[in-house]
């Protein structure tokens, strides 16, 4: 069995944020992407998923900095679970760590 952690998203930018320097000195730029959801269950539930995309590499951070709300993007990367301290406890969230980020054509 081959294991894989590979994500491809095509969606619309809903928030761009600003690059943040972490206490470690690393810089991350987070972009929020909205992707339409269609139900595979046959129950007819449709909606959207809002996914945070973390851009760590210089190239993907540069691309993220040029994006605007409502731009369409294609993201390739991996799913990551991030832990953080909040309100006296530890929290976690999933995000996509982008290795490739580019503008995509708007849908017709």
Radius of gyration: 15 Å
Nearest-integer average pLDDT: 91
Largest sheet: 5 strands, mixed, barrel
Low-confidence stretches: none
Specify the overall morphology. globular
Beta-strand share of residues: over 45%
Biggest β-sheet: strands ordered side by side in the sheet: 1-3-4-6-5
| Secondary-structure element order, N to C | EEEEHEE
Taking the alpha carbons of the first and last residues, their distance comes to: 39 Å
**Number of H/I helices:** 1
What would a concise description of this structure say?
The chain is mainly β.
What descriptors fit this protein?
108 residues; 5-stranded mixed beta barrel; 1 helix; mainly beta; 6 strands
What does this structure look like?
- This protein is mainly β and 108 residues long.
- The chain is built from one helix and six strands; from the N terminus they run E-E-E-E-H-E-E.
- Strands 1-3-4-6-5 form a five-stranded mixed barrel.
Describe the secondary structure blueprint for this structure.
Elements (H helix, E strand, L loop, with lengths): L6 E9 L4 E2 L5 E12 L7 E10 L2 H8 L6 E15 L2 E15 L5
Parallel strand pairs: 4-6
Antiparallel strand pairs: 1-3, 1-5, 2-3, 3-4, 5-6
